[in-house]
Design a protein that fits this description.
heterodimer; A: 259 residues; alpha/beta; six-stranded mixed beta sheet; B: 374 residues; mainly alpha; D-Maltodextrin-Binding Protein, domain 2; four-stranded mixed beta sheet; 5% strand; elongated
Chain lengths: 259, 374
């Protein structure tokens, strides 16, 4: 299988302001968010990133999507370096996270066209893609309604569709089912499986063990910015469930901290 | 370039299809027009009153000839039947405009050099009372001096109009341009950061420099619309505002003047938009951007005020200083005393600074510390 995403020894630190030091009850002037992190994802694979809050998952995904820069190391998307050719990387990835909001003044139809244009998608392809994706998610029923008037679920569907306007090779989803009702969540999960069937690579960050067990091919567990465990999902058959393994690793890392 | 146009179109659509935004852009112009027109009407009415107004007065021991001389110029109604107490009470009630008491044989006493005192009662809170008091005092002082002034104003219609226009328009225009920029830039950049929509734009393959340039161009067009609305409001209301002043006209300004004006205005709007965009990009929210841009507004207004009194600066080096160069260039254009070198320096300097501003903005868009500042 072809490697589509290769993360090599990524490191990222954030300076802590005095306010943050006070909140975190720490005297350290900086915090290591991602520490020597490496992993690879293959074509047609769903890679699940698991980790507690503040483990460094979102920072890693933001580096891969070129929103922020790493201190050292590199990540390659389809062989293109995020630090050397970020604009080219952006044309190869789709990124969906709750941090990215849609401009509420516009309609889904306008936003789809707008982002398609920014990605250089021609009109014929754009219209065909829009027709198919709007129909799949039922967006055609509210395609001319301003985003501000849509429900959370509808907005999430629109965000999802818009992250894919350019048919990216690799799709990064940070908690894609957060805040969704069970029906919309199922539609999104089914769609992820569809994308995998089409040969897309998906990086999925989530807290939901059952979701990872159900759809992921590979899983990486990040704790305190480090990749503490990485394996194929076939390793996690009862009685060695993913959840059990995760908490073993988590407790071990806490022990290291306290020891 | 296609991406640049896409960003410009989106920004323009954002503002021009939102009724509230359009109203907020055009309302200042409409308000200025209405306000200045009403002010002009009130001023004209007041000036008109001085000619047609009937003044009521009581004068005791008035020297011969004064009454007839004054009545050839003003509508005076004498109420000599009133007692002194009644007259004073009516002055307080604003029912009588003026009550004057000359000493007996006033002129004889004056000619003997005895400095006789004339008692004048009026009510300063009444415009008509104040007006007739001034008229009577001037008349009295002129008639006693035994000579008259023969004053002739040699200013042409053009001179008068230019003096009035240069007195206030450059200041107002600079203020409107800045206000227009303030109304749009924080919303577009700090607003996008605050709402979390800018990150969606930053993960597209569009170059950051195109994002910066696209925003600057679109925001300049929008700010220019707002400033134009205010400017048109002033221009349309100015004839009414100057209604009381004879010989006011815009006729002396030709196509060339308006073209120069447009060039200076556009380059100034670009400077303002770039400055406020830099502030807005640094800020985390619209509120913070607006607060940070306020001190700059005070500086702009102070620079604008400096042109209210003087004439345009002549030192070309001063035309390299943004804002100051624009106000002086506007002043020289409105005074019809344009120095081509200074005008050129103003426009080029503003464009160069805008270019530098766009480069800085691009760097800021690339900086995660600024774009995702918490």
């Amino acid at each position: 299988m072809k490697v589509i995403l290769e993360v090599k020894k990524l490191k990222k630190t954030f300076k802590l302001s005095k306010k943050q030091q006070k909140i975190e009850k720490s005297k350290l002037k900086e915090r290591i968010a991602v520490n020597d992190l490496s992993f690879s994802a293959y074509e047609g694979q769903i890679y699940g990133l698991l980790g507690p809050n503040g483990a460094g998952k979102t920072t890693t995904l933001r580096i891969i999507s070129t929103l922020i820069k790493q201190d050292s190391g590199d990540a390659f998307v389809d062989g293109v370096s995020v630090s050397e050719q970020p604009e080219k990387v952006r044309s190869k990835i789709g990124f969906l996270t709750s941090d990215l909001k849609l401009d509420e003044f516009f309609t889904p139809n306008y936003l789809f066209n707008y982002f398609s244009n920014l990605h250089g998608v021609d009109e014929v392809t754009r219209n065909a893609r829009k027709l198919a994706m709007f129909a799949k998610f039922g967006i055609d029923e509210f395609s001319e309604v301003k985003v501000s008037d849509l429900s959370t679920g509808m907005k999430q569907k629109v965000s999802l569709v818009i992250s894919l306007v350019h048919d990216p090779k690799i799709i990064i989803f940070d908690e894609p089912t957060n805040g969704l009702d069970v029906i919309t969540a199922k539609t999104v999960i089914d769609f992820l499986l569809d994308l995998r069937a089409q040969g897309k690579t998906i990086i999925l960050s989530t807290h939901i063990f059952s979701l990872v067990e159900r759809i992921c091919d590979q899983v990486g567990i990040i704790i305190d910015g480090r990749m503490v465990f990485e394996a194929g999902m076939e390793k996690f058959k009862e009685p060695n469930s993913l959840e059990k393994r995760f908490f073993e690793l988590y407790e071990a890392s806490r022990g290291e901290h306290h020891g | 370039m296609a991406n640049l146009w896409t960003i410009i179109k989106k920004e323009l659509r954002r503002f021009f299809t939102d009724k509230r935004m359009v109203i907020s852009l055009l309302l200042p112009g409409i308000m200025i027009f209405l306000l200045y027109s009403i002010m002009g009407d009130v001023m004209s009415n007041n000036l008109g009153q001085s000619e047609d107004q009937v003044y009521t007065l009581k004068v005791e021991n008035e020297p011969d000839g004064y009454k007839s001389a004054l009545q050839t110029l003003y509508h005076l109604e004498y109420s000599d039947e009133l007692t002194s107490d009644e007259a004073l009470a009516m002055i307080e009630e604003k029912e009588l405009d003026l009550y004057i008491i000359f000493p007996v044989n006033f002129l004889d006493e004056y000619n003997l050099g005895n400095n006789p005192s004339v008692e004048m009662h009026y009510n300063a809170s009444s415009m008509t009372s104040s007006a007739i008091m001034n008229v009577y005092s001037s008349f009295l002082s002129n008639s006693l001096q035994q000579f008259t002034f023969d004053v002739e104003n040699h200013a042409t219609t053009m001179d008068t109009s230019i003096m009035l226009i240069t007195g206030m328009i450059p200041f107002l225009l600079i203020t409107f341009l800045y206000s227009g920029a303030m109304a749009v830039a924080p919303e577009s950049i700090a607003g996008e950061k605050e709402r979390g929509t800018i990150a969606n734009l930053l993960i597209t393959p569009v170059k950051r420099s195109h994002i910066a340039l696209g925003k600057i161009i679109a925001l300049s067009i929008i700010a220019l619309t707002s400033a134009t609305s205010s400017f048109v409001g002033v221009m349309l209301s100015l004839p009414k505002l100057m209604g009381g002043v004879p010989d006011f006209s815009f006729a002396m300004y030709g196509f060339g003047t308006y073209l120069m004006l447009l060039l200076v205005i556009i380059s100034t709007v670009l400077i303002f938009i770039v400055l406020i965009s830099l502030i807005s990009t640094y800020a985390k929210s619209i509120k913070e951007a607006t607060s940070l841009a306020m001190p700059l507004m005070i500086v702009v207004m102070l620079v604008g005020v400096s042109t209210l009194l003087g004439s345009a600066a002549s030192n070309p080096l001063l035309y390299l200083i943004p804002v100051y160069n624009s106000t002086n260039a506007l002043l020289s254009i409105f005074s019809l005393q344009v120095d081509p070198l200074n005008l050129g320096l103003t426009i080029v300097s503003n464009l160069v600074i805008t270019g530098i501003g766009i480069l800085i903005l691009t760097k800021m868009f690339n900086s995660e510390k600024i774009m995702f500042r918490k």
